[in-house]
Amino acid sequence: MKKKIFSLILALTMILGLAACKPKDDNAGSSAKPNNQNLAVNNMSEIDQAAYDEESAKLYDEVLGEFYDYYQQALESDNVSNRFALMAIAEAKLLESGAMLPGTTHYGNYAMTRLVPGTRSTVGWGLMQYRYNTQLVTTETIKAADYNEMRSQWGEQRGQGTYLDWVKNYLNEKGYTLKDTASILYVDDPTTWDDLSSSQTVDHEPLVLTYDYLINYNNENEIVPGLAERWEVSDDELTYTFHLREGVYWVDQQGRQVAEVVADDFVAGMQHMVDAEGGLQELIAAGGGNIKGAAGYISGENTDFSAVGVKAVDKYTVEYTLEAPNSFFITMLCYSPFAPLCRSYYESQGGKFGEEFNSAAADYTYGKGPDSIVYCGPYLVTSATNKNSIVFQANPSFWNKDNVTIKTLTWYYTDSSDAQKPYTDFWANTIDSVGLTTERIEMARNANTFDDYAIINNTDSSTYLNFVNLNRKAFANFNDSTVCVSTQTVEQAERTRTAVQNLHFRRALAFGLDRASWNSQVYGEELKTNNLRNTYIPGNFVYLEEDVSVDINGTATSFPAGTYYGEILQAQLDADQIPIKAWDPEADGGVGSSDGYDGWYNPEYAASEIALAIEELDIDISAENPIYIDLVYPGNIQPYVNRANAYKQSIETSLEKKVIVNLVEGADSKAWYNAGYYNTTGYELNCDISDMTGWGPDYGDPQAYLSTMLPEYSGFMTKAIGLF
Q: Residue 606 burial by CB count (10 A; 0-12/13-18/19+): exposed, middle or buried?
């Protein structure tokens, strides 16, 4: 299942070009050089797919079988709170496997900004957090004390509908003026302008500004009408009926009317999304949106899309029918699978549906650029130049145009290589927000701006992880065998494969990493634990709505209504005697959190685990005969060079050189991505530790995360552990 996967570089939109300590190794980035023959050539064409799938299935069962069993139990529960509790137990088993180590979440860094907090949605799933149309922006840089007061008031007033009026009065009283333009940085150009054909955030971020959903989330994170004026849900919770606004139009890049937005656009959008196979399709099938007939159409068992449960009842009424009740269905509607598509315009660009769909056809021009799509959202893309800028202008035909606060939104490209430029650009009013770490903090302090203007960004629900490649096949990048070439010998590679398939070896790697020191290379010493995450799913992502009793290692264990997900996860870890601190009940002012501390680093436990691994494997693993693991990094981004060296130093120290980390340099972020982000299968994964990807939820249920680790090509992140 392909969904919304984040690259780590994309996490730098608020902290671009960070610089921290110089690497302690003068030969930063160099790899260990064995004397024997290197594995320099990939033979991807020689992969026996059937044999590889069989290997993947066997390893998955051995490593994640217990996780999978609890996950399936959770899906079978018809009680939402019981489902959440079983999902928490399933995640505990996932973390205990050592196949993944949580790293960080978005943001949590020092920043300076003119973007007013609490004026656009920050809901933790879907794409609403990227909608800037309601964002308030000041001409003056916001003082930290004022920013924190506004953030505090948002928390107090949330749900009352009063915050926007309050914040406008507050800004006026404090002498701020509002402006209707904003500029931010971006780090990668979209790969397509067809939002329904992609699962990549790099494509969704700009495109979500060009259309609207049936529903929206407002600045207080409440569901409000979008293209649908109203809706109702049937008593059996199987049918959702949405009534569209009349007189809303699709327009072209110049703002010229093309067609009216009608119910059939949502039918066309969903069919095209499935036909395009861009990675979103499984979201609407069983285990996701659970839309009637979707699984059969996706598999090809049924080729008649009219059997799928999305219907245009009449011109302005769209209806979704589910196979079974789905407690989180409404939260899915602000994500790309539910975006509309103007059928007539799509067909005019050579687009076809069903078995006739062919995006490679000579006459297929849809989504090739911002001039080959149509718009019904808050913005038109009036200019887009690769590796330069993207300009969004307010759409004069948008149904809610009077509430679009930013009339011109400009994105400026950065390759992250110049650590000082974003800070300079911010104070030159070229951009309206900038992240700070070591070098920029020093610049700010030298300019006497740090104390007055430095704020700390809130973290979000996305999670970046370190994954262990359980079945490595690639020893150079899948698309270029001369790039990121491993220096491991055949013998070393076989020893590594044997080692990483051992539970205790994987745990030794997980507990041997000083994540605070590792993270300080990007975020600076002062905030090195601020955005550390200790779980895949944030511990406070959901909570129990009623009392629940679940079995934990044979003991019926009760949790009262209001218990956070993370507390249940921690109970299972404690019962299994795994020393992970996944939930801190005292964090976040006593509310509790899984963020903001390192609950994994435990060199003593790592040493005991490597000893158990050596005993079980019955092979010589020592400082004289170590296991080699490859870690790829982008050589042109100094903080990540530093971070790779910190990983190497920490692992090698904790495990007493029984493990040696080979640092394999990628010339730039693209080479790094190709080693472990752009691969479409596990056998293309060119590293032993993959550390460049993360996940943000598509809807408001733990399943949005855990489903990414399912077998048989249905879990999108499973490829990050080298399977399927």
A: buried
A 10 A CB-CB count for 494 gives 11
Burial class (CB within 10 angstroms; exposed 0-12, middle 13-18, buried 19+) of 549? exposed
Q: Which of 421, 410, 474 is nearest to 443 (CA)?
A: 421
Please give the mean pLDDT across all residues of the chain: 92
Please name the helix (run of DSSP H) or strand (run of DSSP E) that holds residue 611, with its range, or none: helix 603-617
Q: 155 with 463: CB under 8 angstroms?
A: no
What sign does the dihedral 342-343-348-350 (CA atoms) show?
A: positive
Confidence tier at 388 by pLDDT (50, 70, 90): very high
Q: What is the 3-state secondary structure (H, E, C) of 248-308?
A: CEEECCCCCEEEECCCHHHHHHHHHHHHHCCCCHHHHCCCCCCECCHHHHHHCCCCCHHHC
478 contacts 487 by C-beta, under 8 angstroms: no
List the one residue out of 395, 467, 508, 516 whose CA is nearest residue 632: 467
> Hey, how many other C-beta atoms are within 10 angstroms of the C-beta on 425?
18
Contact 532, 103 (CB under 8 A): yes
pLDDT at 27 over 80: no
Say if residues 671 and 692 touch (Cβ distance below 8 Å): no
Q: What is the pTM of this model?
A: 0.82
Q: Check if the beta carbon of residue 613 is closer than 8 Å to that of residue 621.
A: yes
At position 187, the amino acid (one-letter code) is V
**Dist. CA 707–CA 75, nearest whole Å:** 10
Q: Alpha carbon of 178 to those of 115, 223, 405, 606: distances in Å?
A: 10, 26, 9, 53
Residue 62 has pLDDT above 50, yes or no: yes
What residues contact 653, with CB distance under 8 A and at least 6 apart?
A: 603
Closest to 102 measured CA to CA, from 470, 493, 535, 397: 535
* Side-chain-facing half-sphere of 54: CA atoms under 13 Å: 5
Percent helix, strand, coil in the chain (nearest 5)? 35, 20, 45
The pLDDT value given to residue 577: 98
Dist. CA 357–CA 542, nearest whole Å? 40
Could you tell me the pLDDT band of residue 415, with boundaries at 50, 70 and 90? confident
- Which H or E element spans position 434? strand 433-436
- Find where tokens 């993270």 sit: 519
Is the pLDDT at 17 greater than 50? The verdict is: no
Give the residue among 289, 297, 294 at the shortest CA–CA distance from 240.
Answer: 289
Confidence label for 282 from pLDDT (cuts 50, 70 and 90): confident
CA distance 394 to 381: 9
The pLDDT assigned to 23 comes to: 27
SS3 609: helix
When pLDDT is averaged across residues 599-625 and rounded to a whole number, the result is 98
CA distances from 15 to 22, 43, 110, 180, 692 (A): 18, 38, 8, 24, 16
3-state secondary structure of 191: coil
Task: Calculate ∠ Cα 126-132-137, nearest 5°.
Answer: 145
